[in-house]
Specification:
about 350 residues; alpha/beta; Aspartate Aminotransferase, domain 2; Aspartate Aminotransferase, domain 1; three-stranded antiparallel beta sheet; 9 helices; 14 strands; globular; binds pyridoxal-5'-phosphate
Length: about 350
């Protein structure tokens, strides 16, 4: 078996141990004579799988007891709408911080339901920084404050938690979920699509403070009401069973590695290696302010974009895939989620040096 080094922004690399376990259990999960894919979501086996996944995630993130953990569908994109639908609770305004492409999408969906106050924007810097909190203009009447704690496309990560006072803080953590310790109690709601750092596409994890449930706008369909999902233990309809199972295996894997503190240590090491190589070169450049650089997603450009095609071709020949940057930024992007081995980044750094020497 030959595995590539997969720098995809998502769906993304998964731990090999997880894939091996899933393969071994594919036809017959723990002696029950069927695949997890074939099980009833109401059956004892699957309910056990789901409960274990939730318990492991709660343990990994030290989720306080008064928070609900929901396993939903619709991607992080569906949360752009579900958040205002559920959290406005009669108010007419919400605060948003605009740090890039994903923030903009969240803002667009919220605008259909409320007045959006852009509390801060990094647009003037072409989305290369996380605006300092001292510049934010928060609305004390806002129903919640939303920000994108890691901008997957621009490669901007918040290394601090915004102060929202009494206003519930909402974070789209899709692309750095479980990559660092998070104090959940500082948030009203956290959401993340699974395909970056959790498991397969099709699952979205939501962690929400219990007292924020039950205030959905009149007419909200039941599938879009957090309380419906919370009351039904994420089983109000058929959940994405196989995706939950794989996510559960990933949670067990993270625990075996040493938890989120170890994930953070590895992320610092991996990204540090790559940023150092970029900064030391004349050919490559990352535009993000140093203290706001993402540990997960590293966009970089080549001094001459005419070299891009040759760079990507050489990378592919060396088993490194999905390095092409997002169309809105151009250049390259290396996404290095929890399952990316250090050796993969080492290989990339060697190639950066080799390519630069050859093109000088
Ligand atoms: C990938 C991503 C999304 C969109 O996720 P989908 O699951 O495709 O809806 C939203 N926000 C961020 C920060 C992302 O990285």
């Amino acid at each position: 078996m030959s595995r590539v080094i997969n720098f995809s922004a998502g769906p993304a690399v998964l731990p090999e141990e997880v894939l091996e376990q899933a393969a071994a259990e594919m036809h017959d999960w723990q002696g029950c004579g069927m695949s997890v894919m074939e099980m009833s979501h109401r059956g004892r086996e699957f309910i056990g799988i789901c409960e274990r996944a939730e318990a492991d995630l709660r343990e990994l993130m030290a989720v306080p007891a008064d928070y609900k953990v929901l396993f939903l569908q619709g991607g992080a994109t569906q949360q752009f709408g579900m958040v205002p639908m559920n959290l406005l609770r009669g108010k007419s305004c919400a605060d948003y911080v605009n740090t890039g492409e994903w923030s903009k999408k969240a803002i667009k969906d919220a605008k259909g339901m409320c007045q959006v106050n852009i509390a801060a924007s990094a647009e003037d810097s072409r989305f290369t920084c996380a605006p300092a909190q001292s510049e934010w203009k928060l609305d004390p009447g806002a129903a919640y404050l939303h920000y994108t704690s890691n901008e997957t496309i621009g490669g901007v990560e918040f290394n601090w938690v915004p102060q929202a006072g009494e206003v519930p803080l909402v974070a789209d953590m899709s692309s750095h979920f479980l990559s660092r310790p998070v104090d959940v109690s500082k948030y009203g709601l956290i959401y993340a699509g699974a395909q970056k750092n959790i498991g397969p596409a099709g699952l979205t994890v939501v962690i929400v403070r219990g007292d924020l449930l039950g205030g959905a706008r009149p007419g909200t369909p039941s599938m879009l009401d957090y309380k419906v999902h919370a009351d039904a233990g994420s089983m109000s309809n058929t959940p994405p069973t196989y995706a939950i199972y794989i996510a559960g295996l990933v949670f067990q894997w993270v625990k075996r590695q040493g938890g989120v503190a170890e994930m953070e240590r590895r992320a610092i090491a991996r990204s540090g290696l790559l940023y150092a190589a970029i900064d030391a070169s004349r050919l490559y450049r990352n535009p993000v302010r140093r203290e706001d650089r993402s540990r997960m997603n590293v966009p970089f450009t080549l001094a001459d974009s005419k070299l891009d095609a040759a760079f990507l071709k050489g990378a592919q020949e060396r088993g490194m895939l999905e390095l092409k940057g997002h169309r809105s930024v151009g250049g390259m992007r290396a996404s290095m989620y929890n399952a990316m081995p250090a050796a993969g980044v080492q290989r990339l750094v060697e190639y950066l040096e080799e390519f630069e020497a050859a093109s000088a």
